[in-house]
Each structure stands twice: as structure tokens, then as C-alpha cells.
Amino acid sequence: MSLTITPAALAAELGAPRLVVLDGSVFQRPAPDLSTMLQDSARASFEKSRIPGSVHLDALDWLWDRERPFRFALPAPDIAAAAFAAHGVGEGSRVVLYDRVGGNWATRTFWTLHWLGFEDVRVLEGGLAAWKAAGLPVESGPVAVPVPAARPFTPRPRGGAIADRDAVLAALGTPGVVVVNALSAEQHAGTGGLPYHRPGRIAGSRNLPAPLLADGTLTAEAVTALAEHAGIRRDDRVIAYCGGGIAASNLAFNLLRAGWTDLAVYDGSLDEWGRDPALPMETGPG
Fold first, then answer.
1. Collapsing DSSP states into helix, strand and coil, what is residue 198?
2. Which of 141, 138, 153, 163 has its CA nearest to residue 237?
3. Where are any strands of DSSP class E within 50-129?
4. Which Pfam families does this entry report, sorted A to Z (predicted)?
5. pTM above 0.90, yes or no
6. H or E segment at 177?
7. What is the mean pLDDT of residues 89-116?
8. Which CATH number fits domain 4-157: 1.20.120.680, 1.10.3720.10, 3.40.250.10, 3.90.1150.200?
9. Which residues are registered as beta bridge partners of 237?
10. Which of 20, 119, 149, 270 could be cross-linked to 85 through a Cys-Cys bond (beta carbons 3.0 to 4.6 Å apart)?
């Protein structure tokens, strides 16, 4: 099954039984002094303009374990699955994800479902912007409380789909395992952008910035070319990271649809790694 769907194809499916369309958007912006990343709910934007019948799943409320010490830490699998069930995703559901922020949050939601073992999920190519550009209908106004799934799905977590700091430490210098930074080239080099506690990158990591992946619209061949240019081989195990695991999910998603199979997102990413001066980082070209 394709991991993406075009706006025209989704429009033809709207209203079909068991179809659940989720908007996973969160608005993020660097603080003016670049000391941290700020985030805001996209709920008001969702109420102004959305794909008809879609549901807003706000990660700020539902998919962030605030008891853990880094930004956007995933909750336990049963809690995450219950959050999806509360928004209509259950056994037999067919899920389409979109966002209004360039694809990072749709793919973060995708990767969360992938980690939970949920299979029938696709990302809308180009997100809400492509839907509107195609002249397809939108709706606005207050939204009803989502209808919970009649049969919540049982999570069957893919343990290898999420990495922790120990897994990243073990990967450094290990043949066949590559750690890849999905942040900008400037952040990777430590020359600009938000530094996430310390400038630069996890020592020895490579760089494939998520914005190059074009909101799910690149062909698999184009994704493969970008990956190979970044030094990522198809038979590598890839651990993707960024500031808080969001752009990294975009990278992992696109590698998955381009044919990579052994993929993980470092959940803590630099929001965890950068806080600990004992963990190796480096700056400069690389």
C-alpha cells in the first residue's frame, strides 16, 4: 500500500465508512533569543479552515508525556493508542493524516501510529495547502467532539521504531548504523538557528534536512537520491533525530516510503542529548 495519497484521491474517498482524516498540526517557532522552541495549538486555524469531516488531533494535549524531561516525549503505547481511539481511530479504521505546517506533524503522527503497529495509514501529499490549491472544498466553524472508535485498536509496538539515548550512543561508530540529523545545515554545523542547548550535532551524525523532503510530494527516487548524497545507504539502520523528534519523523517516513526498512526516530533528540554535557557533540562541516 502506498504511504501517501493525493488530494484528488482523498476527495473521492471522503465520507467512506471507517475513513478517519486527522489534522495533526502544531505551530512551532523559535523564541526571539533562540533559547528554546515555542509551540501553539493549531485548533483555531483548524476551526477556520479544514478538510470536510476531518478531526484535529492536538499533540500538545494528547501525544506528549509531560512527565518526561524532554519536549514531545511519546506517551506509553496504551496511552497513545487510547488518544487515537478518542479521535475515532480503531480496529478497521483507514487513516489519512495531513497538516498545515509543511508535513512534519502529519509524519510525526504517522510515525506514532507506525510505532504502535497500526498499518492502514497514509499521509496527504502536500497537506492542506495542496488540498486548497486543487480547489477542493474546505469547511469552517466550531467542530463537534470527535466520536470515539467503537473498537479501539490494540497497540503492538515496533520496538525498533523508537530509539533512546543509549541506542544512539551504541550506534555511534557501529558499522551499518547511521545517525542522521533532520535539522538545517546551519544547525548541523552549529553556525545558525536554534541550538537546542548546545550548538552543533550529535558527534559523527550525517545531515538530511527535513525541508528538502517537500511535504510528501517527492518521488521515492528523489528521496533515495537525497539520502545517498547524505551518505545513507539502503542497507543501513538509520536513527533519525532533530530537536524534538518531529522533523526526524518526516525523515524516517520518507525513507520508509523510499524502501528503507530498518528505521528509528530518537525520541529525545537534541532536546535530551544537548542538555547532557557528557554526551558527544561537534560543530563545523560534516
1. coil
2. 163
3. 55-56, 94-98, 121-124
4. Rhodanese (PF00581)
5. yes
6. strand 177-181
7. 98
8. 3.40.250.10
9. 177
10. 149
Q: How is residue 230 written as a grid cell?
A: 547524505
Residue corresponding to grid cell 538530511: 208
Question: Which of 153, 159, 26 has the alpha carbon at shortest distance from 94?
Answer: 153
Specify whether the backbone of 92 is left (phi greater than 0), alpha (psi in -120 to 50) or beta.
Answer: left
- Estimate the share of the chain in helix, then strand, then coil, as percent rounded to the nearest 5: 35, 20, 50
Closest Cα to residue 20, out of 127, 93, 106?
93
Q: Strand ranges (DSSP E) for 15-130? A: 19-23, 26-30, 37-41, 55-56, 94-98, 121-124
CATH number of 160-282: 3.40.250.10
What are the pLDDT digits (tens) for 115-166? 999 999 999 999 999 999 999 999 999 998 999 999 999 999 999 999 999 9
Cα–Cα nearest to 126, from 257, 6, 254: 6
Q: Which helix (H) or strand (E) holds 4?
A: strand 4-5
Percentage of the chain modeled with pLDDT above 70: 100
Query: What distance separates the 2 farthest-apart alpha carbons in the chain?
Result: 53
Angle (nearest 5°) at CA 36 between 30 and 40:
60
Give dist(CA 43, CA 47) in Å, integer.
6
Return the bridge partners of 30, or none: 37
Domains 4-157 and 160-282 share a fold: yes
pLDDT tens profile 4-36: 999 999 999 999 999 999 999 999 998 888 888
Q: How far is CA 94 from the centre of its chain?
A: 19
**Domains in the chain: boundaries:** 4-157, 160-282
Mean pLDDT of 247-261: 98
